[in-house]
Amino acid sequence: QVWQIPENGLTLSLTEPVVVLEGHSKRVGIVAWHPTARNVLLSAGCDNAIIIWNVGTGEALINLDDMHVDMIYNVSWNRNGSLICTASKDKKVRVIDPRKQEIVAEKEKTHEGARPMRAIFLADGNIFTTGFSRMSERQLALWNPKNMEEPIALHEMDTSNGVLLPFYDPDTNIIYLCGKGDSSIRYFEITDESPYVHYLNTFSSKEPQRGMGFMPKRGLDVNKCEIARFFKLHERKCEPIIMTVPRKSDLFQDDLYPDTAGPEAALEAEEWFEGKNADPLLISLKHGYIPGKNRDLKVVKKNILDNKPAANKKSDLISAPKKAADASNSQNDAKLDEILKELKCIKDTITNQDERISKLEQQMAKISD
User: Where do the WD repeats lie (predicted)?
Assistant: First the structure.
């Protein structure tokens, strides 16, 4: 279900989603918006299928249901949304071109251990993975999708059994690793030189984390040199964790805040599905982020009546206003048909429930007799 948050945040509980997307046969555990195309959403479910939706029309346009034989642990888009990478229970990392519906690269036994893995795309196109060794040590690795034979770098961490969840900042090339059940966050910088993955520091707290959320860069306070904000899920509360770089100057620190991906889409959904690619549209955070006008999501169901060929040539002679009136009439007719269908469904449901109630009443009467 896709929900529209009102302009100034929630004041009442929402009860009506903007659109319901139906297509998976089992529970859906993963959803990820396309990084550059408007209203394109990826979902992955326990049916081992990945579906890519055009939310603006409520349609499933790509269904990748035969690529994974086992549970999908996570899915990540690359920087411009032309590829996705997935980590699966069969210990494989796959790089997939969703529009061609083909696997571009894959690596078996990315991590030898049986516990869950994660894989994410970095800004330069490389892939970062976390997993476990055969001896159940936690590992992190860096891969080049053009040659998945050997990792660019492979580091062993410790023997804790919490799955390492990676959170990536493409602007500073820092990866934050939050272990499930850990009470710490480790962070690393990814560089072009050996050892490629540089350990920076560890944030420690007392309470273990159940889960972790990550604030987008444009939600950070640039006046306080805040470079990351996490939302740490405890047993009964959610706690913000703010990471700042200590600087004496009050001036804007442009090395901490290079231009970052803004909320505006670089492509329309239809353009992306037709094969176009575009990098994210970047914005400056110099004066903090000022949100633009909230563009409401309008779901437009495609109407097959609009594509009807003209019955005869005479219709070409009808004046333009008449055509506009006809178009609005046909739209009204379509809406009316939809409402009548819904009413019929409701009536049928009521009839069925009435029959069921009377049967149950008869059974209760027999039992009491």
Answer: 21-63, 65-106
pTM of the model: 0.79
Number of other CB atoms surrounding residue 339 within 10 Å? 10
> What stretch of H or E contains 85?
strand 84-88
Q: Tell me, what's the pLDDT at 222?
A: 92
Domain count, the chain: 1
Q: Distance between CA 233 and CA 227 in Å, rounded?
A: 20
Which token pair is 99? Answer: 């529009």
Angle at CA of residue 162, ends 160 and 165, nearest 5°: 125
Give the other-Cβ count within 10 Å of 262's Cβ: 18
303, pLDDT greater than 60 = no
Q: What is the per-residue pLDDT for 339?
A: 86
Find how far residue 278's CA is from the centre of its chain.
18
* Residue 224 within a domain: yes
Say if residues 256 and 244 touch (Cβ distance below 8 Å): no
- CATH number of the domain where residue 186 is located: 2.130.10.10
Q: What is the mean pLDDT of residues 298-311?
A: 55
Q: Give the distance between the most distant pair of CA atoms in the chain.
A: 87
Enter the DSSP assignment of 158: -
The answer to whether residues 261 and 282 touch, using CB atoms and an 8 Å cutoff, is: yes
pLDDT tens profile 192-249? 988 999 999 999 999 999 999 999 999 999 999 999 999 999 988 999 999 999 998 8
Report if residue 342 sits inside a domain: no
Looking at the domain assignment, is residue 145 inside a domain?
yes
Q: Map tokens 């306070």 to a residue.
A: 221
Supply the DSSP symbol for 147: B
pLDDT at 327: 55
Cis peptide before 195 (omega within 30 of 0): yes
Q: How far is CA 74 from the centre of its chain?
A: 10
Alpha-carbon span 143 to 205, nearest angstrom: 31
